[in-house]
Amino acid sequence: MTATAPAQTPANGVERPGRFKEFYHYFSENRGAVFGLWIFAGFVFVAAFAPWLAPYDPAEQFRDFTLIPPAWQEGGNWAFPLGTDPLGRDMLSRLLTGARYSFFVGVVVVTVSATGGIIIGLISAFAPKWLDAIIMRVMDIILAFPSLLLALVLVAILGPSLTNAMIAIAIVAQPHYVRLTRASALGELQKDYVTSARVVGAGLPRLMFLTVLPNCLAPIIVQAALSFSTAILDAAALGFLGMGAQPPTPEWGTMLAEAREFILRAWWVVTFPGLAILITVLSINLMGDGLRDALDPKLKRS
C-alpha cells in the first residue's frame, strides 16, 4: 500500500489563484480596459461577419440617392440609416466592410513585425558584441525617421496599395519589437535557470526560443496590442494621403480622402469614418493599458 503525498500549500495557508484568474483580476481592475475589451470584441465581430451584417454591397451605387443624410435628419431615408456618399453608396455598408480591412491590416502588421522583431532581437541578445552593435545601430537609424514619413517613402518606392502599405508599416514597427525583445532577453540571460540550461547542454535555438523567449512575452504582448492600433491609424493615414488602399476599397482612411470636398455640406461622409477610427484605436489603447497592468509585475498591487 503506497502513501499519497499531501497537496502542498503556501506557507501562509492561502492557496494562490490560477494564472488566468490572477491575470483577469488585475485586468478587470482597470475599468477602461474592460470597456476597451468589449468594444474591441464588437470590432472583431463586425470584421468577421461584415458581409452578412452589411445591408448592401459596399460598392453598389444608388444614383438617385446621392448624399442622403442619416435617417434621423431631415431628408434622410431609413433604407440608408447612416446616409450615402457622393456616389450613392450606403455609408453603413462601407463602414462595416471597412472594419474588416482595418482588422486585417492590424493582424498582418502585428504578425509580421512581431515575428521579425522577436527573431532579430533574440539574435542581437545572443550575438557577439560587434554584431549586436550593428543590429542596434540599424534599428536606431530606422527609429530616427518619423514613422509615417518613412512609411510614405517605402510605399512611394513599392507603389500605392493596401498590401504595400502593410509591408511599409510592418517595417517601420519592427525596431520597437527588436529593442524590447533584446532588452528583455538580456535581463533573463543573467538568471540561474538560463545558466542551468547551458550547463545541461541546451543548444542555442533551444535557449533562445524555449528557455528565454517565454519569459519575455509579457511586454511583447503589450507592445503588440498597442502596435495593432498604430497599424490601423497609419493605414488610415496612408489611405487618406492616397498611398494606401485605393478607391473603391471601403477602407476608413480612403473614405475620408474621398469625402474631403464634402466636409461642409455633408458632414456624415467624414464624421462616421473618423469616429470609427477614433473608437477602434481608443478601445485598443485602453485594452493595451489593462494588459500592461495585468502582465507587468512591477505594476501589480499586493
From TrEMBL:
Q: Which GO terms describe its cellular component?
A: plasma membrane
Protein transport: is it a keyword of this entry? yes
Q: How is the protein disposed in the membrane?
A: Multi-pass membrane protein
Q: Organism, per UniProt? A: Jhaorihella thermophila
- Per UniProt, what is one GO molecular function of this protein? dipeptide transmembrane transporter activity
Name of the protein: Dipeptide transport system permease protein
Q: Domain named ABC transmembrane type-1: which ranges?
A: 99-288
Q: One short Pfam family name for this protein?
A: BPD_transp_1
Keywords from UniProt, A to Z, are: Cell membrane, Membrane, Peptide transport, Protein transport, Transmembrane, Transmembrane helix, Transport
Q: Which family does it belong to?
A: Belongs to the binding-protein-dependent transport system permease family.
Q: Which GO biological process categories is it annotated with?
A: protein transport
**Where can this protein be found?**
Cell membrane
Which residue windows are transmembrane per the record?
33-54, 101-127, 148-173, 225-246, 266-288
Check the record and name the InterPro entries matching this protein: BP-dependent_transpt_permease, MetI-like, MetI-like_sf, OppC_N
